[in-house]
Specification:
It is built from 1 helix and 5 strands, in the order E-E-E-H-E-E. By secondary structure, it is an alpha+beta fold. InterPro entries: DUF2188.
Length: 65
């Protein structure tokens, strides 16, 4: 199962979508844009999971496909 994560960068100016918490896939100016992109990627590559993280990198939401 592939795992994708959405988290803010260090100064929270951009939101980063990562694959397997290793390689940044893309960065987005808003949290909603990053979440929508991660969900689209995960749906296209199921089975997969999307983790939405806060600025301390704690999981605040998890979605599975």
């Amino acid at each position: 199962m592939k795992q994708y994560s959405v988290a803010p960068n260090a100064d929270a100016s951009r939101w980063i979508v990562k694959i397997e918490d290793v390689a940044p896939e893309e960065s987005y100016p808003t949290k909603d844009a990053a979440i929508n992109a991660a969900l689209d990627i995960a749906k296209a590559n199921n089975p997969s999971k999307v983790l939405i993280l806060d600025k301390e990198h704690n999981v605040i939401e998890e979605k599975s496909f």
